[in-house]
């Protein structure tokens, strides 16, 4: 019986080996990376050819980036690929060689940086206002004449409508203790609010602050900051990504990767849309970056570390919270558990 079982197993194994995919020949070709840079910029061109160590007769090669066809060549001639129209970040490159009636696939990955060197900007403090030192600030946004702030921490998350000049709370909405509150934004007469790791969001009526809908994220991401351009919502997830959401169905439809000309920027946090750009806090970093919402390129950096000397701040009380007041055309910033909020003007 054991011998019979062994024969059956060997026969099955032979069948599996003998039934390989004719159009999936492995390790015959590889993308020639000998002239690749360690990192590319979006003004660069990648020059593709295949290594053909098996000396096969290649009829043509089709190239893909992130599973999108980008071109093809006859034989193994050079394919030139300009990166200008691609997203910053990782490019997952694939070549499919068509040879002698078969196909063979090979892949590689390159990282693309911005071509823009960020400008270093300064700021001027115009006014200083009181801020609740107990507020673990996650989001800050103006709506009408009032400033709204969302806070985090499980068991004590809420958002409030405030008189920013006095710091007085005018209305407060508490979250269920199981939620860690994150960013907020106002769009289409609604308030959208994120939670951190529960992959849950809330929609409230902007006038009454009454909860109208609870929704689930359609991607496996965390919720951090939020803003909008009056048509779409943009939200961060604690990585270098900023996602684009359709507010009508809460579906994430696209994203950008945030990069400078030398590196990607992780821990993108609170967001604010100001004059066609996204202003962003970086978690545990005393800077605000200004990001192109189409490319993800960091265009400017503002060093905000000087504000620490003007407020009651401990080492862990990081800057977080950016709100643009369209009436005064000024920016309001604060931090987690800061006792002050600052009205500033950016010096271009």
Q: Which strand order do you get reading across the main beta sheet?
A: 23-24-25-26-10-29-28-27
Helix content: under 10%
Number of helices: 1
CATH class of the largest domain: Mainly Beta
Number of domains: 2
Terminal-residue CA separation: 85 Å
Please give the largest β-sheet: 8 strands, mixed
Structural class: mainly beta
What sequence of helices (H) and strands (E) makes up the elements? HEEEEEEEEEEEEEEEEEEEEEEEEEEEEE
Strand content: over 45%
Which residues form runs of ≥5 with pLDDT under 50?
A: 1-24
CATH architecture call of the largest domain:
7 Propeller
Rounded mean pLDDT score: 91
Enter the CATH topology name of the largest domain: Methylamine Dehydrogenase, Chain H
Whole-number radius of gyration? 26 Å
User: What's the total count of β strands?
Assistant: 29
Describe the protein:
- This protein is mainly β and 348 residues long.
- It has two domains: 23-113, Immunoglobulins (Immunoglobulin-like, Sandwich), CATH 2.60.40; 119-347, Methylamine Dehydrogenase, Chain H (7 Propeller), CATH 2.130.10.10.
- Helix content is 5%, strand content 52%.
- The chain contains one helix and 29 strands.
- It has an eight-stranded mixed beta sheet, with no helix packed on it. A five-stranded mixed beta sheet has the order 2-9-8-5-6, with no helix packed on it.
- A hairpin with a 2-residue loop joins strand 5 (58-65) and strand 6.
- It is elongated, with a radius of gyration of 26 Å.
